[in-house]
Amino acid sequence: MSAEISLVYVTTPDSDLARTIAADVVTAGLAACANIITGMESVYRWQGKVESATETVLILKTRSDGVAALSARVRALHPYEVPCILALPVTSGLPDYLAWLAAESAGQTISAR
């Protein structure tokens, strides 16, 4: 595999926003693929209080060298003051799939709008 791949884990307040972000970043070539997982419940500490919320998980698959541009674009589209955007390196996988991910997210050189 010539390009390193990362999974970018994002939480969103609802599935509509997750779909909007997914379509935007895949269209721009910032991610090759997006998975949307609805119905996740988060329990977290925010500003000194324990909170809980139902959220939608968005998993974006991209080249590692495009994570900064992808994160900037997600941040621009996201309503949270501090959104969850975590990049996790992929250490192995089906070589043909990893090559497809690398090729389809090669447009990551497009600047974050």
TrEMBL record:
GO terms for biological process: response to metal ion. InterPro entries: Ion_tolerance_CutA, N-reg_PII-like_a/b, N-reg_PII/ATP_PRibTrfase_C. GO terms for molecular function: copper ion binding. Belongs to the CutA family. PANTHER family: DIVALENT CATION TOLERANCE CUTA-RELATED, FI09726P. This is Divalent-cation tolerance protein CutA.
